[in-house]
Write a structure and sequence with these properties.
Layout lengths: L5 H15 L4 H17 L10 H13 L1 E4 L3 E4 L3 H20 L28 H14 L5 H17 L3 H5 L6 E2 L4 E4 L10 E4 L2 H16 L21 H15 L6 H14 L4 H8 L4 H5 L7 H11 L7
Antiparallel strand pairs: 1-2, 3-4, 4-5
Amino acid sequence: MTELPLKPLHQEFMGYSRFTRQVSPHTLRGYQNAFDLLLKRYPDVTTATLTPELLTGFFEWLQTRERIVGRGAIRQGVKKTTIATYWIKLTKFFSWLVLKGYLASNPLKDKALEFPRIRYDDRKYLERKDMKKILRAVSETIQWQNNLIRARNGAIIAVALYCGLRRTELLSLQVSDVDLTHARLIVRAETSKSQMSRTIPLNSEVRQALTEYLDERSRCPILYTSRSLWVAGNKNAPLKSEGLRYLVQMLCRESQVKFHLHQLRHTFAVNFLHNSGHSSFKLQGLLGHRSIVSTAAYTRCLPPEIVQADLERMADVDNMV
């Protein structure tokens, strides 16, 4: 089998994923980021040198290298979930190499390598007291530069908390995706990790927050023609990932609650299960999971006090089958 450099092959794989498989931009970025890290560790890797031993060295490097994060802080290693993500992204590429005849077998499927075991009971959700602090910070504590920014940020947090959207889905929302008349929001397939469109009902809190924001947007001196729902404060342009990250950082600082945006999705999931009679199938549709297995992980996050009432009802023989 001819020895070939991996970089041009990965470019071909990316084209196949983008145009043939119609993979979402978010997933494509994940493919590229994982491969870029592999090249950073092994710049000259080829189809001949891509072995289980090389990949063992790669994952060891990921877990021991030092990185600069935030304001110059040094952090060592990555989470197991991050290792698992890189593993999944790379194995897609390696399986494609096998399919195309460039590799004899996928090195990540070698018996010598074991997929990282991840604890799915650590999906941290935010407690009520912490959510109150965050909501108070966005609506009262922080002095935003104008009413548009205040309303926009309040609406972003409301949609994340009460609709359970992923970061990319949140940033990809367009004005046309919001239907306040029928109180619903559409996540388009091309922006979803699962590549499935879904419709999410809006509760009164989200409707109020979105109505206030869209009213402020329409009254703003800047003529916003951007199709993006979330606009930058000082120009006719969509809010970018950096702006969303800055918003979360401000809220962490002012509320004194350390959290990341995805925790609002976890909080949405756990609270929905609590208030819907633990309906995993309903939650699966709202979260956009392809498999109920992914959704079922949230049932293991329910704190004991939430299911205490259910167990107490079992103590009454009349309630048993």
